[in-house]
């Protein structure tokens, strides 16, 4: 192999190796951010998941159901604005458990989460029931909400 070719290949391999090392470099730990989010040493924290299920009340009147869903969505927005809810959304497929949607609340207290879910007009009307589960996830989860507004053209 010619020296020039060898040097070119060596330089290319070194450059690629450096580029790969740079990609896998761990971001610098940010203690201030971790503390502000309530993160433990793993960057995690407890939350409470509410699984919304089909409730005992069936509302046939489409206008009334529309108003309940409008109130349901407004309540989600209010809870998100207050920092109480970090994830909310419906399931896209029917399932054997009759789970309709879920909330992830920014609390480890099942009692507090239950108080918050009971503010939902659709829960109050019996359209939705719920189950409560403690959950452990990334403390950074609430940060996605601020970016959601940047990517959504409309709100339901």
TrEMBL record:
Transmembrane segments annotated in the record for this chain: none
KW Signal (keyword) present: yes
Record's keyword terms, sorted: Signal
Pfam families xref list: YCII
Key word Signal present: yes
Leader sequence segment: 1-19
InterPro entries: Dimeric_a/b-barrel (IPR011008), YCII (IPR005545)
Every YCII-related domain range: 58-135
Family according to the record: Belongs to the YciI family.
Protein name in the entry: Uncharacterized protein YciI
Lineage: Bacteria, Pseudomonadati, Bacteroidota, Flavobacteriia, Flavobacteriales
């Amino acid at each position: 192999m010619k020296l020039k070719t060898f040097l070119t290949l060596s330089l290319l391999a070194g450059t690629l190796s450096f580029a790969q090392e740079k990609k896998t470099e761990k971001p610098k730990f940010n203690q201030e951010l971790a503390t502000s989010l309530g993160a433990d040493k793993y960057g995690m924290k407890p939350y409470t998941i509410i699984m919304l299920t089909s409730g005992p009340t069936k509302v046939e009147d489409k206008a009334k159901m529309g108003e309940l869903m409008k109130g349901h969505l407004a309540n989600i927005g209010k809870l998100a604005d207050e920092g109480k809810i970090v994830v909310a959304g419906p399931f896209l497929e029917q399932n054997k458990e009759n789970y309709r949607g879920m909330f992830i609340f920014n609390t480890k207290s099942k009692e507090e989460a239950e108080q918050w879910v009971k503010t939902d007009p659709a829960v109050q009307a019996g359209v939705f029931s719920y189950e409560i589960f403690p959950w452990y996830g990334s403390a950074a989860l609430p940060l996605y909400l601020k970016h959601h507004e940047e990517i959504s053209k409309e709100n339901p």
